């Protein structure tokens, strides 16, 4: 962790974008860390595949360079990956995402030659690709993505820790060890971009190195009850469980759902408001890390929006958990962000934001209208010609130690994104049923410890069949297919 600050830096950077019936707000806070090491990705429509959107959080350690390179270079790398232009099915898109992670890591390593570059610098990466029919999440490290569906949380990624049995086996086979829960006693994650000092076995492929950038890629078919995605780094997940994050964001957004699901300036600002509230909630819950949260809202039907306002769907429980039994969940790593990729956002309407001032008030500068966020002190002010977000992030920090809205809004491709999506398999949702609280902040139970214990129960079922009990499909980089 390194030495912390005497008091947390609570100023925030923010960005929001929209496209394909989706809206996204990202907020990052440096917190107690001496440097901000995170970056993010927020693209409502991708050049070359305008019907698709992509979002990501990159949590740097040993410096911010790798995180910012991932943010800037992932989309161009994705666009160059074979199959990008033609991918249609979830399996095809999974292969493209998987290969783009491997290619980007190799590309950054080649560029590092001759530079003043620390081979211990790295970043975790969690990326969500939303197509008209599927949600796909590629993850390397312990940042996390959670889908909110009808008030329930569905975890779309698995934390890659050296103590996980499969991760430990790979580390040992590559000549490493796990000590104090870390790779060779140093690195707290077993998969990451960068960290080239752990990738030196020339006789092994990239997937077999002590630390690998090879992601797990999970996908789920889109459903009319999909409400939101939350992507965040472990600075959030270390103190807030997946269930509680979905509940918290949902409650924050409930009163802000635009009539008939229409996008408005006030509604879009509420996405940033929700992300900012989640980051503040993590700080109040005791996070000592950088914090970044990205909230993505799906287009809701008027019926679904009304149900959300009523709050009924949020009370759903998991019948399989049984009376008095907590439902399974998870836990996570670092956070904070900025940055968007070039060559993106065709057909999407983008609002780039810049933070002004410090403290808990977030003043955002936008190229659009002016409106006041609901309760977070987030003000969106017109700024002619605005095209980017966020204040600059520092180039240094560490992991080593010793919803609901969405209308086309003029998008040519939004009709494809809004087309009917197939029904989910029975039992495909993960319950947001309450777990015994460890502590409560702002009315939300913090159950990170129970979250950690339960997390591993969902991780392996999909390896044999390609689809687990929740309907998630896991892509195999070894075979190039699900399962």
UniProtKB/TrEMBL annotation:
It is a peripheral membrane protein. Transmembrane segments: none annotated. Keywords: Hydrolase, Metal-binding, Protein phosphatase. The lineage of its organism: Eukaryota, Sar, Stramenopiles, Bigyra, Opalozoa. This is PPM-type phosphatase domain-containing protein. Gene3D superfamilies: PPM-type phosphatase domain (3.60.40.10). Residues 336-346 have a biased composition (Polar residues). PANTHER family: PROTEIN PHOSPHATASE. InterPro entries: PP2C, PP2C_BS, PPM-type-like_dom_sf, PPM-type_phosphatase-like_dom. Its main location: membrane. Belongs to the PP2C family. CDD domains: PP2Cc. Residues 23-298 form the PPM-type phosphatase domain. Residues 399-409 have a biased composition (Gly residues). Residues 410-426 have a biased composition (Low complexity). It is found in: Membrane. One of its GO terms (cellular component) is membrane. It comes from the Eukaryota. Residues 310-483 are annotated as: Disordered. GO terms for molecular function: metal ion binding; protein serine/threonine phosphatase activity.
